[in-house]
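TL;DR need structure tokens for one chain.
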Amino acid sequence: QTSNESSPGVPTGTIVPSTATGSIPVELPTFPAGARKVDVIVTNGIFGLGKIAYTFLAAGKATIAAPAGTYIVQLRATSATGVTSTVGTTHTITVSDAGETVQSPTNPTGFSINRVLGGIEVVWDGTYANGTFTGFEAIKIYVGNTAVATSGTYREAGAMTGNNVRNSIVVPVDGTYLRYSQPVYVHAAAVNRSGTVGTLQQNVASNLLGAKSAVSDDLDNQIITNAKLVDSAVTEAKIATSAITETKIATDAITSTKIVANAITADKIVSSAITADKIATNAVTATKILAGTIDVSKLAAGTISVNNLEAGNINSTSYIRAGTAGSARVELSSANISGGPSAGFYIYNSAGTPVLSAPLNGGLTIVGNGTFSGTLSGASGNFTGDLYSSNNQFSVISGSVTALSGTIGGWVINEQAFKSSAVAYPKIELDPISPKFEIRQSASDSSESGIKVIKIDPIDGIRAGTTSNFKFRVDMDGNMTATDAIFSSGTFNGNITSSATIFGGTITGS
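>> reply
TL;DR here they are.
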């Protein structure tokens, strides 16, 4: 080495993976300046304390065969005159045994479907479309509900691990992709040991009937025995209506411990099945009897006596009815019952109309024809209807009769007067309170203006004419006035006193 000769550049950017199979991959991306070659020095294993395992004359990649083990890899440049550089990056790599070569998967063929109870059996005969491949791992099986395997129409159902041999798997019903009595389609793909999944083979097998269900056509005779049933497998929902008959139940098989509380409902009891000797003493209490369920038809003649009725047992939710709702009946209730009687005492005729009503909040109403005999004493309030006494004569021994409204013999009455019609100004009106007596040419409810009237009362005397212009009047002091009147065709007997004044008229006659 001469005094002026320099060393070549150190190899940089070298690439060596930390693991590999069967060999040591080395990459030199850039060849160092001033170098004639770059040596790859490997230490450990078959390379001992260090050995040049490969030499780069230019940038590139190299693969150095090596058995399984851990190795140290370094690269060093050398110039044309033999001057060497220092080593570059030190790499450590673990090499595993290469073993079998793993090839890409090829497409499997030869699939079929067998319907089984509750699912399908997918069978593969172990063949491929283009020959087998090395590094086989499994055949993935998919089930779907369409022949074309689009997203959402299929799912992975399992895998077969036998290669080049006939093998199978059973896929159970899932209710979406594999169903009872519905078409099912099988797709498949091969997988190698590197995890590479081959091309999905669509619709490699199909069956239009899907999984086999447990119906009579699917099961051989006597195939399901008692030993084949899991405990508690047969529930109430699995038993057909009327399937369990009396002959299927052993004598005394159903004991009280086998009956759930309240399990026996009314529709489970045959009519007349429960007789008197089946009911324990005091077993039927008041809370066990539905309101309104015990009617007259359920009571034997003479079974309810006075001693069997307790005072005060009619409460807000009960009532007594003699007869049938909607027709002739008598009802007594302490409160208004929804769908039932009103509070009080009522008697209905055959048409279901109340003829006597005594509501609980007071009052008495009687509808219909009839005769009343007896005495009413201490009574007050309003009375409506007809009153008859002996021989159709009516009398009031003492007191007074007041009519608030109504008619008597065609006369309209109120609390003060008799009127010939129910208007403010009737044709005839007799008022004992004012007092007065009035006769009108016609009746009116708004005004008597312009109507010819005759009025008699102790204040104004006698007046005849219209309310705005009485033609004739006699005052209570005896004065007689005739306005715009004519006395004719008659004889006047009497005296006209000297103090009398005659004015504004014409006197004819004698």
